[in-house]
Design goal:
By secondary structure, this protein is an alpha/beta fold. It has 15 helices and 13 strands. The chain is about 40% helix and about 20% strand. The structure holds NADP nicotinamide-adenine-dinucleotide phosphate.
Amino acid sequence: MTDQKVIAVVGSTGQQGGGLARAILDDPAGGFKLRALTRNPGSEAAKALADRGADIVTADLDDQASLERAFDGAYGVYGVTNFWELFSVEREQAQAANIARASVEAKVHHVIWSTLEDTRLHIPLDDERMPTLMGSYKVPHYDGKGEADRFFAEAGAPTTYLAPSFYWETLFDMVQRGEDGVLAITLPMGNARLPGIAAKDIGLTAYRIFGRGDEFIGSRIGIAGEHLRVAEMAAILSGVLGEEVRYVNVPPSVFRTFGFPGADDVGNMFQFKHDFEDAYVGARDITLARSINPDLSTFEDWAVANKDRFKIRVVAELATV
Ligand SMILES: NC(=O)c1ccc[n+]([C@@H]2O[C@H](COP(=O)([O-])OP(=O)(O)OC[C@H]3O[C@@H](n4cnc5c(N)ncnc54)[C@H](OP(=O)(O)O)[C@@H]3O)[C@@H](O)[C@H]2O)c1
């Protein structure tokens, strides 16, 4: 079809962009055509998209000119950055600015920017409830994205600001068998609700937003499949996995010491979600998300479909917390 609108998807080989890429490919009559951006067209993920007929374009978020070429002639752009590859707010923001400026240079009609809250608007740096990290952030992988929103506004990019929530896929690593033999999810969430989503649904919802034309340009849309408490997720997983999954609640100060890269950032993130529960949950309206994407998975449906992907192993130190 010649009148199909091209969507240039940053992160097409990853979770968010991959969900959007597959949503476009799964709906050939939907009016959109996929242009999949990657640094590595030879990767298995890129080849899988190419095998399904995607146009694969090499581009690097660190290189604005490569993005301008990749966005040329596109109707839409999905922009996502990967803090966890960078561990640098400055680089993540430079990449966001490149997406914003390249979209304007390429005269893209609609950009969806995958953002998150700037938590410092809720908890200022001098608030000692949680440590300040990397000099001037509370939750670096959130604050940098939230602060980068202004690059899109300043560049004049026609942007929908999409704020996802906790990927339930994170639980594949998080459900671990303690020394007592019982499966556990260890998180510092108390009894607060934790908005969550199946990762594929982020891209599918973005696809539906593109399908709604200009309706959400200039808006901020938070999305979640459900707002479950961790104890509720543990109970559902117990049924799906066929054995007890316990919720082990730890203080954020303990979680921050867990030792994996970025544990302090992630610990602050969960503390933010707990301490500012109403604001964080309120920014992710399930009714709105479902009105855009009625196919959003529930946690239970997602768990049943993915139960074989849990990588359960013994982690002694978690059992002793
Ligand atoms: N995990 C969660 O619960 C959660 C929740 C909300 C938000 N997030 C945010 O999600 C972001 C990561 O998104 P994701 O989960 O979709 O990532 P992912 O699955 O790890 O994939 C990263 C994608 O980004 C692309 N990419 C990375 N650096 C690039 C560069 N310099 N130039 C071009 N492409 C680049 C990669 O493409 P190639 O390697 O093919 O080039 C890949 O497709 C993070 O910033 C995180 O803060 C995560």
